[in-house]
Amino acid sequence: MKNLCIIVFFFAANLIIAQHSPGCSSQSYALMDYWVGDWNVYENDELVGTNSIEKIVDGCAVLENWKSKFGQPGLSLFYIDNKTKTWKQIWVTGQSNKPWGQKEKSLIYHKKDSLLIFQGSYVVKQENYLDRTLLLKQSDTEVLQTIQISKDGGLTWETTFNAFYKRK
User: Fold this and answer.
1) Of 35, 81, 116, 155, which residue has the fewest beta carbons closer than 10 angstroms?
2) How many domains does the chain have?
3) What is the CATH number of the domain that holds 47?
């Protein structure tokens, strides 16, 4: 856990240093703009948490600040990897010792201004899992987030979270 914190803080420090780099206002950095804002999050019409999504370091990254209805926090940092020119996500919770408590995903699909799909993998008891997150704009005031896992390499998917974000 200590090493993960050091890596996250090192990465954040590098983003702060790079905040004046050119190019963070290009269209590539606007891909997640429809999700930026403060949200109440509902699953099956029940409030399950709140989320605040903001652009940081001069628009070069996006910070997600999740809080469940029980007060459990989670943070994501989204950024464009300079080598691959692809959006990446680092997700960290207070349960980082569990496979779902920290994740890294890459953008594998996007449809302008309406759909983003991030995907990564993790291992539980020597079993590989694919994990993907879909963010689908429903309107200017609502976004659907679906999180799914696959135990068979992506042939079948199980939905583990399916919630509507409603703008505050």
Assistant:
1) 155
2) 1
3) 2.40.128.20
